[in-house]
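User: I'm writing a tutorial on reading structure tokens. Could you give me a worked example: one chain, its sequence, then its tokens, then a sentence or two explaining what the tokens reveal?
Assistant: Sure. Here is the example chain.
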Amino acid sequence: MSVEVGQIVPDFMLTDLDGREWTLSALRGRKVVLFAWASW
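And here are its predicted structure tokens:
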């Protein structure tokens, strides 16, 4: 998936380390910083 500056990002869901589920649409209007990492 590729998103250009000014485009709307598709909605998705993630689970945080406490087990809470978050959707991007639930955070609409807020600034979001997403860190993606892997342990391998």
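What the tokens reveal: The mean pLDDT is 87. The radius of gyration is 12 Å.
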